[in-house]
Design a protein that fits this description.
This protein is α+β, with helices and mostly antiparallel strands. It is 37% helix and 19% strand. Strand 21 and strand 22 form a beta hairpin. The structure holds one RNA strand.
Length: 819
Amino acid sequence: MKYDFDLIEKKWQKIWDETGEFKISEDTNKPKYYALEMFPYPSGNLHMGHVRNYSIGDVVARYKKMRGFNVLHPMGWDSFGLPAENAAIKHGTPPAEWTWSNIDNMRSQLKRLGFSYDWDREVATAKPDYYKFTQWMFLKLYQNGLAYKKKSYVNWCPSCQTVLANEQVVNGKCERCKSEVGKKDLEQWFFKITDYAQKLLDDIDKLDGWPDKVRSMQTNWIGRSEGAELQFKLDGSDKTLTVFTTRPDTIYGVSYMVIAPEHPIVDELISGKPQEAECREFIKKVQSQSEIVRSATDTEKEGVFTGTYVINPFSGEKIPLYLANYVFVDYGTGIVMGVPAHDQRDFDFAKKYKLPIRVVISPEDKDIDSENLTEAFAAEGVLMNSDKFTGLNNKEALPKMIAYAEEHGFGEKKINFRLRDWLISRQRYWGAPIPIVYCDKCGTVEIPESQLPVKLPENVKFTGQGKSPLSECPEFVNTTCPKCGGPARRETDTMDTFVCSSWYYMRYCDPHNTEMPFSKEKTDYWMNVDQYIGGVEHAILHLLYARFFTKVLHDLGYIGCDEPFENLLTQGMVLKDGTKMSKSLGNVVSPEEIISKYGADTARLFILFAAPPERDLDWNDTAVEGAYRFLNRVWRAVDDLKDYMTDEKIGGLSEEDKKLRFAVNSAIKKVTENCNRFSFNTAISAIMEMVNSLYSYKEKAKEYNAPVITEAINSLILLLYPFVPHITSELWEVSGHTDKLSTHSWPEYDSSALVVNEIEIVLQINGKIRDKMVISPDLTPDEMKELALKSEKVQSFIEGKQVVKVIAVPKKLINIVVK
RNA sequence: GCGGAUGUGGCGGAAUUGGCAGACGCGCCAGACUUAGGAUCUGGUAUCUCCGAUGUGCAGGUUCGAUUCCUGUCAUCCGCACCA
């Protein structure tokens, strides 16, 4: 009988599909397990990254199921987004049509790989019954002050006439038309994620099951920094400017102040000043710089004097106020104090504009002076030239100086975050419409929940020119105000697709609920996700937004948990010849090609065997053949031995029988341990070793022991099942079983089969291996020592030397220390 | 600059609390079966001055014993980056 993977795989996929094998519901008699892989964007075809992601997830799901868990393992589609619209512009296909046909294609590809999803729970974010609740989420945020609209500088492509997301700006250029992206001041919707900055930061500590890398990336992204806000009076006015600084201890070293050119107060400051023209020129220049150039570390620091002075609240000194390109309007207060001696950026700026450099902190062990300074001294030290604070260590001085400022009413302690509010509006068609209307009488009015969803119109033209398609669709725009019934205009922006993907894992718990996004009862049973698996590229955006949503829904009482993902596995990339697979490099290996040549089981086995899940994996065609060869080897072994299968209990054993039983049971032990820690590559290698032992038994055993062979074959099939479910299902059947493999329990090893009556131990002299001996594992350390000293080799090595010490580790080794 | 990781044969990788470095697989070499084999089976495969030394990026340290723990250092990759 030949291993006909195509026939077998299609047969079992059909059975699974028709019998609803992987349908799951709540069952309080079993512990639940929620295994989740990041849902794909329906681009049209699966790539190897998907195959890897979902193969890992499928092993986890199938393994946990065999271990007695009630496993939720769903799949869906992150189906809103720009490519659908681009396809519409290019080919005239409506985004919906393009999306649904891509989904159909990719769903069948997933099925062809035999993943154990409960397809009854499939969700697609672009379906009205889903985005109804994305809109519901928006309303909940809006009602609780967490969604707001404000004017903001956004990326603007002048050629496409549209706003772009940061991700769509590549090296300062539009990813589609390659024209230079500018900035535009527009009214935009934001989610107030900054309200949760501290909580999101604090709870990173709880995420023990997440990789350090992701935790530190999120920590950096949130970017908490502690310091103070200090108020500087404007010279000749009663107004003040507030700076944020982490180094109030350097306040006596301030020799100038800088304000961001876009700062709203700038206009007032420069109006009528002799420097006005120069300043306006500078502002124009900075605004024309792209964000990339502007925020690059090596961009030269430039500025102009505003003609205005401010007063240092500590020293009373009058200092000049500059505009400069290195200050950002949206961080801190948009105004920064310049301390050239103790900050490298300020040092560079002061050198260029010949501003005073005054040292106010010096290292403990040496003196530094302003004249000879070649770079800023940013380290710890002792305060000097700092009035009553002189002589204090800067660490002690810092809280004292903040307290002093608070006492005198010109400053306070302040914590700033780098995290910005989340801009969620997009001037795009293929996204969830924001459920808001604008009424001349009532202003901004939310759509009542009962009227959701606000559906996307279908009769829309895609030209890629002019305004967003929705704003040019009068049937959509013109509506009535839900409050007063008068004429009103709909919001024509749609939501960022990351909004849709921030809550999909909750929807899987209760996907057919028409009243609510999910019931508390169902999420209380299933949430949180026990194991989340996906690429590290989502380390910040998606994973942070999902945490934010979970916390908001938790605080509003809709969900019990306050973190969505208990454990996170970030799988490595699939490479070819050391580089990322890409169409432009022409090194793409398509899953379909591999499946048709070797089958889904081989594809899965290779991908799981070639590297540990979190590491990058280099595609290797000959190693794929190796995986295929192994499956053939398994197939032949079972085929050859299946007639020995019996119900008889294990009885008398020959030496060969014992050897095989040892191999089988230690494989069960190893594979179990390896699967528990997701070390699938070593789990597979342990199974390979067991198959090698089985072949060796076939070759060497004088007489075949049917119960021992039965144990071996059954264990082999069961251990291999989570990795390669089709071939094992078939082998389970051909070897005479009538029950379902998918619900069979995971095998347990027989510890008596692992007992041996002799083991080999190592004899070391001074830590170097000199001999080996075979002894009973029960020998005491003293007995072992005695035996070891009798070894001829050992004797020749210790002859004429003094034995200082003998270390005996039971079942392992003996080390004799000599001088 | 800040943060995170990774360095082991020709290659992918293994060694869970310190205890035989290189499991398993790829590749390569040899043998068997065969008209033939790119099928299959069996054996071999770290390096060298190969009778016994050396080897887990490099240099130290702790220990009877270090791929594993500690200190320093180098290299590569990834993320953030003019954030005051």
